[in-house]
Amino acid sequence: MNDTVIQVADLSKRYRLGVIGTGTLSHDLNRWWAKVRGRPDPTLKVGQAAGGSSPSPVGGDRVPTSDYMWALKDVSFDVRRGQILGIIGRNGAGKSTLLKILSRVTAPSSGEVRVRGRIASLLEVGTGFHPELTGRENILLNGAILGMRKAEIARKFDEIVAFSDVETYIDTPVKRYSSGMYVRLAFAVAAHLEPEILLVDEVLAVGDMAFQRRCLGKMGAVAKEGRTVLFVSHNMAAVESLCSRGLLLEGGRPLAMGRTTDVLDAYFALVGTGGVQDLALREDRQGNGKLRFTSLGFRAGHNAGTGDVVQCGADLELVVGYRAAPNLKNVSMSIGVNALSGQVLFVLGNEMTGTAWETAPQAGCMSCQVRRLPLAPGQYPINLYCEVNGVLADWVQGAGSLTVEAGDFFGTGKLPPASHGGLLVDQQWGLHGA
Ligand SMILES: Nc1ncnc2c1ncn2[C@@H]1O[C@H](COP(=O)(O)OP(=O)(O)OP(=O)(O)O)[C@@H](O)[C@H]1O
Ligand SMILES: [Mg+2]
User: Fold this and answer.
1) Which of 88, 96, 199, 206 to mutate to test the pocket of ligand 1 (most atoms within 8 A of CB)?
2) 287, 405: one domain
3) Which parts of the chain sit beneath pLDDT 50?
4) Nearest residue by C-alpha to atom 29 in ligand 1
5) Which of 77, 81, 85, 171 is the most exposed, having the fewest neighbouring CB atoms within 10 Å of its CB?
6) What lines the ligand 1 site, CB under 6 Å?
7) C-alpha separations of 141 from 112, 148, 173, 196, 235 in Å
8) Is there a contact between 343 and 382 (Cβ–Cβ < 8 Å)?
9) Is 143 contained in some domain?
């Protein structure tokens, strides 16, 4: 029996520049509404561009040569029943676009998608929920949309409420929910209403640790029941533990597909594991440009690991190259160190620690030394942020990524498990009688 449940062939999606929204569902629905009312279709087919300027249908450069850009280009893959496919890639790689096409929120520009089975999707927060309706009404509505009978939904109702932990608020309109409650209920609905295919986009970024673990457990259970899960995440540890297969997107194209470990290796090679990142050509930056980062490098002192990898507890120097306009005043630099989930772990800053730079040479580098790096093994994306005279000059997110491997931080040879968070804290213990 052929148990392929999703078949994607030569899928491409082109967006018109200037209509980039927040990427939320409500925006997509607005666009759909515009279409229904006879407004211009934002999902025009290749070669059917309105307004004359012709897109570049070949080559697929993401550098827009006209008013269009490819969010996805020539993506083909199959997913079999019961598989959990992890979809990874940098910001803007096309992951959410792919899930939106699979769940028919948006249409492809070209290519083909075949899906066998009932899909439930949890795209960006709140998909499929009506803000004015209560939690209870939304559960019933979603069940009905999925084609379930009333009795079936009633059977699942208590499980959903228990999983989402929103019992007290179940008769409150969901617009009054916190984002955490909202996503808990949305995930519970999507996962429990017995879809044959479950699409999940980044839900883990919102919930707390306990909820994240419950979601991962539930997705695993869904797949064990022979259903299929597509899981988009920046949390590589979660992808590694949950997914049997991976798909790496880069600039809308599939860069690697196959065993999760191989695809994760490809991802880490792509985002760079330390070494020097060239930042001069990055376009996804903000600020007035009076100062611009050109590179980010790491130098490890004693106890360091080999090559680009740093050990926990090593002395580390972060070096940021830059170019600047003449006569800058009051340069304030921050380096943010994040978890793969996107959560900020800590921010290093020159001013905060009492080093003021009243001016800066036109080209040079700023360095920051961190003694005894307090990070558990893992991968840590770095953001760079600089203000000149109180105004944002340059801001590059994901400027590089620090790979930390096991080291003897506490002098005991022991380290906390990954579930205890990424930070290592110097500590002394005492035990005192009354
Ligand atoms: N509605 C839209 N209109 C125009 N461009 C869009 C729209 N939605 C997404 N894009 C663009 O398409 C590209 C792919 O976006 P997508 O949201 O799929 O990326 P992603 O991989 O999900 O990124 P992230 O990790 O940040 O969630 C981006 O360059 C984005 O700016
Ligand atoms: Mg996304």
Assistant:
1) 96
2) yes
3) 19-27, 30-64, 125-126, 273-274, 302-307
4) 92
5) 171
6) 15, 19-21, 23, 71, 89, 91-97
7) 30, 10, 13, 18, 31
8) no
9) no
